[in-house]
Amino acid sequence: MTEKDHLDFLSAKADHLQAEKNNTLKALEAICSARSFNVSLNKLEDHNLILESAFNKMLTLARFKNAGFMLVDENTGSFTPSMFFPQEDKDLLLGEIERLITDGTFAMAVKSNNTTVIKSRELRSHVLLHAMSTVSRTRGLFIGQLSTPKEEIPDAVFFLVTLVMNETAHQLESFELYNRNKETNRMLSESVRRLEASEQKLRNFNEKLEAEVYNRTKELKATNDLLENEVSERKKIEKLLLQQKEALQELNETLESRVAVETENRRKSERILHEQSKLAAMGQMMKAVSHQWRQPLNALGMIIQDLLDEYDEHGISKDYLIKNVDKSLKLVMHMSSTIDDFSALVRSDFEKDSFDLVTAVREVISLVESQYNGQGIFFEIESAESCDKNLNPEGIIVCGDSGMFKQIMINLLSNSKDAILQRLESGRAEHGLITIRMSCGGETAKVDIEDNGGGIPEEIIDRVFEPYFTTKRQGKGTGIGLYISRLIVQEQMRGVIEARNSFNGAVFTLHLPTRTD
User: Fold this and answer.
1) Residues 20 and 43 in one domain
2) What's the domain range around 7?
3) Among the three residues 176, 197, 217, which one is the final residue of a domain in this structure?
4) Which of 101, 113, 114, 256 has minimal Cβ neighbours within 10 Å of its Cβ?
5) What residues does the Histidine kinase domain cover (predicted)?
6) Quick one: 108 and 17 in the same domain?
7) How far is CA 63 from each of CA 8, 85, 145, 385, rounded to the nearest angstrom?
8) Are 307 and 391 within one domain?
9) Residue 349 — very low, low, confident or very high, per pLDDT cuts 50/70/90?
10) Hey, what's the torsion of the CAs at 353, 367, 435, 378, to 10 degrees?
11) How confident is the model at residue 507 (pLDDT cuts 50, 70, 90)?
12) Strand arrangement of the beta sheet that strand 79-85 belongs to
């Protein structure tokens, strides 16, 4: 290439970059000048104004022949048609959506949460797709038929499209939360009205009761005067007292056997509660396994579907087949390791009287971490040098059964998860965090499980280990998890479990005896 050709090439490249810069600035100016959505939520009857505002902003970024919105039904999880511009092109766009669902483009656009532009054979033009998603879930999908080719639209426009769609998704979520709060306030007002009526009835009852007490007091005074004049009744009373004394002696003689019976009944009740707690922990573990299997199963499904597509388009080469077989085997091995984690968690080593504390904790975290991460809850594990296997190969050997200890950990982590999810749903926290600290000294090891779930009210924190006492909503908890955990720690492991509040949540501490031999 001559020097003149090189200069011409650089000049053409500079002109191209300048044109891209001008197009980007125009797109930014357009989106900044677009009418912002400033209607109060309490003035909205439905989400139409939100969708119209989003479409007007989209028009400032690109030209569309037609466009429409599909919203996700929260109860069924399916996409339903909502608004179309113009309305008469609704069937045309729905037909295109059916084709995109069939070839898998629709699912890809929803999953990517980025701008997707494809060439439609039926419409003979480019079609733009973009999901409307928030952290909690996908709210819907925008589809628009472009009036200009994709190549004429600057890349910055597609980035701005993502901003508009994310903003629209958050506006839809805010509108939905506002309606829920509105209904909750209505129900609270109705409850207050019923409570006021109950208070009035109680006041009337108290007035009636006071009158009754006055009359009864008057009658008792008259009776007392009569008894003072009936000295002859004293002998009957003394005889009755003697009979009661004999009955009390007989009761004392049989008290020991009754205490033994009541003690056995209490042990049976505790065994039943233990089994109930164990089933609840099993339920938590099964949820974790289900969550860890869902992603590799979806990946296997995509590999199988891709095999068919590759066969139809190019045929399947040996290298391609080997590559996909390796991917599938890795997914299968991952699922197999999940089964090993689950088996290790439910195994109860009754023949062993000790276990490695650090290993047991990490096995529990390995099983539930993926499920909790998917709900916005993350783990931090901190351990002292004496608990680090790289520095101390023998680890921390704790007295007790590892299966029972893992059941306690499942119960405590489940309680932390429920508290954190309530804060995430209310918007009082951006993410959940559970911190597990392990330390040891002398003949005792300590495990702290701390969360950022807001803590336990101080007026009830001393009651959290009572049987059937729970702070969760009805149907969300049995109130036996912490009670069984305390029984296992105190009676089976000869340790101590405590509850307290930290700056931003609750802290449960286990003090466990270590093996000294």
Assistant:
1) no
2) 1-25
3) 176
4) 256
5) 288-516
6) no
7) 34, 12, 9, 63
8) yes
9) very low
10) 180
11) very high
12) 79-85, 64-72, 138-146, 125-133, 116-120
